């Protein structure tokens, strides 16, 4: 896969405050996850990528060019910040059409492009002419993404686009991104929801205190080296002891811990592959009523390590 972004000895300081400190990385086509605790330097990296700030030292190239003050490079990018950017009183179809026209498209071309963008993000057409004020968080995120797609960028940069979405909403949003990547649009996405990112991304950049932690973590971050299934799982259920006994009898457990007051069982697998290959059968056969199954101790969590407020 070809490299679209390359950073060499890249640093950005804000006065004496360290934003990004001497990092080297490359981003290939596809979907890349950007992971790090608060203050790790993710937004700084986005600003450098999109040419909003200049490196203090080192270089960053995007599609082979320097993004700073370079409209040719910037035209090939789209940036979707974490904050709400779409005026709530507007309707998405007219909003996107208006933006297209401001950018120089004719009214009919702008409407066509707006339709295509809203279709791509799978926003149901009955909402296209409704006010964004009436939208759920997930629908607003889709409008933001549709706005990014209006100029058919080659790389979309998304800052925490899944914040506040429920698991179903996150999966649907992920599916939209997979389809974009399949059709040739690369994605760089930051998220604190690490297992979603693991399922979505083929590559990762791990940041911590403005640095990329170490060579070992970079190795962990490559998709080829990571394990497919989490080694640990948290299961909330009606009878955690009965479930633990059943899983033990199936020779699935390496270890477990029961938290009776929250009806929770923390499990470490002998062979996670074996459990996940037949998890529906195992859980049914156990005869225990299951409320929630959540993966824990993902490779990303281990790689990034505990941070000031790294949620998972
Ligand atoms: N404009 C600025 N002026 C001074 N310091 C800044 C500025 N922008 C960022 N910083 C500092 O640079 C460091 C990295 O911040 P950055 O916003 O890039 O991190 P982040 O990973 O995006 O954090 P978060 O997840 O909280 O958004 C922090 O210590 C931050 O305080």
Write a structural description.
The protein has twelve helices and twelve strands. It has 312 residues and is an alpha/beta fold. The protein has two domains: 3-225, Rossmann fold (3-Layer(aba) Sandwich), CATH 3.40.50; 232-296, 2-Layer Sandwich (Alpha-Beta Plaits). Helix 3 crosses helix 4 (107-120) and helix 4 (107-120) packs across helix 5. The chain is globular and about 65 Å long. The two termini are 30 Å apart. The model is unreliable at 307-312 (pLDDT under 50). Bound molecules: adenosine-5'-triphosphate (ATP). Adenosine-5'-triphosphate binds next to strand 2 and helix 1. Adenosine-5'-triphosphate binds at residues 14, 17, 19, 36, 38-44. Residues 5-234 form the ABC transporter domain.
Q: In this structure, how is the largest beta sheet organized?
A: 5 strands, parallel
Number of helices: 12
> Rg, please?
22 Å
Strand order of the largest sheet: 5-6-7-3-8
pLDDT below 50 for ≥5 consecutive residues: which ranges?
307-312
Query: Class of the largest domain in CATH?
Result: Alpha Beta
Bound molecules: adenosine-5'-triphosphate
Query: What is the name of the CATH superfamily of the largest domain?
Result: P-loop containing nucleotide triphosphate hydrolases
CATH topology of the largest domain: Rossmann fold
Strand percentage lies at 25-35%
What is the 3D shape?
A: globular
Instruction: List the domain count as a whole number.
Output: 2
- CATH architecture designation of the largest domain: 3-Layer(aba) Sandwich
Helix content: 25-40%
Q: For the residues shown, what is the average pLDDT?
A: 86
Number of strands: 12
Order of helices and strands: EEEHEHEHHHEHEHEHEHEEHHEH
